[in-house]
Model the fold of this input.
Amino acid sequence: AGSGAAESLSLSVIGTGYLGATHAVCMAMLGHRVVGIDVDGEKIRSLASGQLPFYEPGLNKLLRRMLGSGRLSFTTDYSAASGADIHFLCVGTPQEPDSPAADLRYLNAALALLAPHLHSDCLVVGKSTVPVGTAQGLTAYLHRNAPAGTHAELAWNPEFLREGHAVEDTLHPDRLVFGAATERARTLLAACYAPIIADGVPVVVTDLATSELVKAAANSYLATKISYINAMAEICEATGADVNQLAAALSYDNRIGGRFLKPGLGFGGGCLPKDIRAFTHRAKELGVGQAVGFLQEVDAINQRRRQRTVDLITEMACGDLTGVHVAVLGAAFKPDSDDIRDAPALDVARMLHQAGAKVTVYDPKAMDNARRSYPELTYAGTLEAAVSGAEIVALLTEWDLFRRADPTTLGALVRLRNIVDGRHALDAEAYRAAGWDYRALGTPNQL
Ligand code: NAD
Done:
């Protein structure tokens, strides 16, 4: 993909966060003319000046290259969207503050701002993750509010990119899903993704509701797989069995597979937790809550990992964390990202701090975000500074930098060689050989 589109389209991308900024840059890579629009003026200024406002490997370089090509621009002015063939809606759909439901206010606001700028033949395409039925409601809104005589149409094209692999996932996705009611919508989407489709990427063309459901179902499945192995870890903890060996043995079964079967501190981020909650809520609204009742269990298992990690660290501190210096390695919800939304690492750091521990956090990319959201924690400028004088080291986000660290070198910096591996990311034997008390949930704590 990326080697020139058969047809160059004019696109607008509404909402230029993790998803939208990536989408805008990658669509320009395909040869389209793209304007990115956001209500956050600071974000737009940053993007327009070639500075990605978040960390995503490889994306900043491509942003600059595409700005240089003249095919990509950014603005807060919605009128710049007029004339586009396709408008991609990429705004946030976070969890509502006091309910498990998805908060659709940004999506509604974006469509209201966009509607006056629509012209006859354009297509509005939702990419945000939404409760099933949302697109139908937005279609009705569009028909009521687009300028008279406009036949603007709505389609849905859910996004499956992973932060940390966003560019690769956008240009070489596992599949494309088009929820499109008319031939015109399908043709336009196919033209937009032509170079990707030409690479042989499967396209599932379906109705709006199914396309919305694909995303909810996919994230529910992934969350379930993680919580499944973490539930097995709980059983292992009660029996002295080893969840790593269990996972390895399971993974050889092709029907199960090893991906997302990694035990540890569990999932977080701006997607999986809120998506399974929104899905559960929506299913209840539809009167079929029982069908996905298990997702509440998936969520509960996942939340328990955080407390159990705190419990394990407390156990290492002989039951009392007061004044204990804990070095927390990792803040982002996963490696290769600076995203700290619902980050398990920071949740654990916060709980340790509340229990009286002296917590020092280090993350290669998420420090600014973490500082802003958790000013009560102490931050170190390097891995070495974070572990200096520590009585317990807790690896909570499995950055490569932490995996590669040498146990002997680290051992010389700490006050006590105690380590909790919240991600099963380290070589337990190497740490034990270097004199560490190494512990991980779901594995026997050999001393
Ligand atoms: P984000 O918070 O990084 O970005 C959302 C952006 O929308 C922000 O920049 C915000 O300023 C902007 N916005 C809000 N209201 C607006 C308006 N009225 N007009 C224009 N812009 C507006 O969120 P994100 O992670 O990019 O997620 C966006 C959507 O994509 C969500 O529905 C999410 O579930 C879905 N998604 C995200 C990922 C991911 O990995 N981040 C992957 C797949 C799907």
Observations:
- The radius of gyration is 23 Å.
- The chain has 18 helices and 14 strands.
